[in-house]
Amino acid sequence: MTTQISPQQTRSQLPPAAPRVPAQARSHGPLRVPDLAVWPHSAQFAADGGDMLVGGVRLAELAERHGTPTYVLDETEIRHRCRAYRAAFHDTDLYYAAKAFLCRALVHWIEEEGFGLDVCSAGEMELAVVAGFPPERMVLHGNAKSPEDLRAALRLGVGRIVIDSTQEIVRLAAQVPRGSRQKVLLRVAPGIAAGANEKVRTGTLDQKFGLALPDGSAQHAIGRVLAQPRLELVGLHCHLGSQITSPKPYLSAVRRLVGLLARVRDQYGAVLPELNLGGGHGVAYRPGDEELDIRALAPRLRAELMESCAANGLPAPRLAVEPGRAVAGPAGVALYRVLTVKHGVADRTYVAVDGGMSDNPRPALYGERYAPRLIGRRPEAGPRPVTVVGRHCEAGDVLARDVPLPGDVRPGDLLALPVAGAYHLSMASAYNMVGRPPVVGVGEGRSRLLVRRESLDDLARRDLG
Fold first, then answer.
1. Among 32, 50, 198, 447, which residue carries the largest CB count within 10 Å?
2. Residue 54, number of CB atoms within 10 A of its CB
3. Cβ neighbours for 23, distance < 8 A, ≥ 6 positions apart
4. 3-class secondary structure per residue, 194-207
5. How far apart (Å, rounded) are the C-alpha atoms in residues 415 and 59?
6. Residue 8: is its pLDDT beyond 60?
7. pLDDT (tens digit, 9 = 90+) per residue, 267-281?
8. Rounded to two decimals, what is the model's pTM?
């Protein structure tokens, strides 16, 4: 059972993070629970074996109350994951990557857990500030920040802005009020290929982010930043990619960036005190998938940093990391209602649900694979491979290909999709004029609506004719 956390509780009052219990050791009464490794810690089956509970709340009840599709977000899972990061990276600045998913309730949870916030637009900044998040604990990054983004950051007092291009140096400096200085980092492309898909590998040289390390572009840009009296360069930033499951790319990045720090000291006489390694920490979407072990990563990062700095005669800079998916992803569950079951050629069965690529474009974009589960009733037939598809007018609108579901799955059934807390709603669209789903927070047997469903009226009001 999860523990309900009220916003008034302090971090010291929170329960310790629960360890991940091996699937074979999980049981609730006489019912043996199948592999729940990729579900929230609180996930369990009801005594009748049909419905599933998350945060002590029946998912079928949430589907009836809020309709489908609906996202369910386990608050305690979010907090447990934040505390796991604090325990592993106890001497590191932690920033939650807002692009994974952001709402006002999540802003409160992140702030109470001692995290900063990594934002990339005026919209994310404004939402967080309205929710009470201190702007000095934010980092703004992005390869093409708009004038509105920069104005908002300076107006609100964002703690650090990550410079991503040489044009941005002068553009930002010109907006900083006379007599003040803005702390900045410089984003470096270290030439490291890491990530589950080429579309999310952002540490390579041939992509839009950062300034290249090998050809001297980053070192030259550092000199230009140091020459701006209204900018205070406090460190370097890099982000290698997403869904990285090995520590090796991060260790390589540390070595290369420390080498750049040493050259900056030698050329400009500046010793930069901060090193932000971004995020991209991989999680498991299906049982058996690899994921990044942050308890192993943290000490290796620290050891590599100390060794590299000692070899270059540098003091060790303050580290920062920016997890997003690894905090929010496994805390979310998506609920769908089956609309049709169609038996196609080659003995393939298509199970169509009332959502799809408008609320989860990741399978179409990156080929991500999920493990949906039938909930709400006991199946009467054994599993057989099916392809779960969405309702949209695209052949690529596939949520889960060739996954086992009971052979008697039928219209009206409920499907639950785990690891749905990151890059689902944040990347959602209104394709086919289908409104975006709501988000329901759960914990200690209670639920509350965090984000309401986008209605047809919402969509119609934007169209002024």
1. 447
2. 28
3. 33, 34, 35, 36, 37, 287
4. CCCCHHHECCCCCC
5. 10
6. no
7. 999 999 999 999 999
8. 0.90
